[in-house]
């Protein structure tokens, strides 16, 4: 990609822009100097359909000056605005700057609306219809791409409605996750577990923890080898939210289910990334928007009929 961002392309665009303007000027000058020889009756000698003769009348002045004005306008435009490669223009306008100005205006316009929520807790906002409507829009625009429009996630993307949380489901933890993002990493563990048979046995032991179909004999053999995994997942396999290590006993499989999937995880490890969503960390959301989105996501797994 470095070939597309070096100085060559800036010069390339600048040359094309300048050549276009100069070419128009040259065309205007050459055509103005070219004289068409006409007959005594002011015709060019071109005849169509036997009696239609082309007159040698000059171009209307207003038409010529209109052409000249477009050339002059393009010169001033390229001085004022970007168009000559990396030259930013005298006005300093840019698409990014225009976008950021629009965002700032929108945030200023919405500030009074969000001000009402600043003194409310996540629990209080979850009972406020307006806050939840705003939170739903924020979720659809910023989170649904990964967690799905119904927030039930998919393979490698957590379900936000079931109360099963890798890092904790309190409003504080959800706020922390949205603000800073998360990096979930399980290193390859095959070397620590043993040979291929040991890895398969551990996979069956992991399946047994949640009551999933498994080979009981292999599970018994894999129990002692599971000690290599216990540092993160715990000796009982119930996970560790401080590390983001999943609970292996609840039959909720983030990256897929079955012997082959677990063996692949043990052999190759897994890295999952959620980017930060807060503007302070490179995202798009203001602190007030993070607060409302936190309340909305918390409400998804804390409805009266939700299983927590």
From TrEMBL:
The keyword Chloroplast does not apply. It comes from the Bacteria. Pathway: Energy metabolism; oxidative phosphorylation. Binds 2 heme C groups per subunit. SUPFAM superfamilies: Cytochrome c (SSF46626). It is found in: Cell inner membrane. Keywords: Cell inner membrane, Cell membrane, Electron transport, Heme, Hydrogen ion transport, Ion transport, Iron, Membrane, Metal-binding, Oxidoreductase, Repeat, Respiratory chain, Transmembrane, Transmembrane helix, Transport. Its cofactor is heme c. Residues 130-210, 217-301 form the Cytochrome c domain. The chain crosses the membrane at residues 12-32, 62-81. Component of the cbb3-type cytochrome c oxidase. Belongs to the CcoP / FixP family. PANTHER family: CBB3-TYPE CYTOCHROME C OXIDASE SUBUNIT FIXP. C-type cytochrome. Part of the cbb3-type cytochrome c oxidase complex. This is Cbb3-type cytochrome c oxidase subunit. It comes from Comamonas nitrativorans. The gene is ccoP.
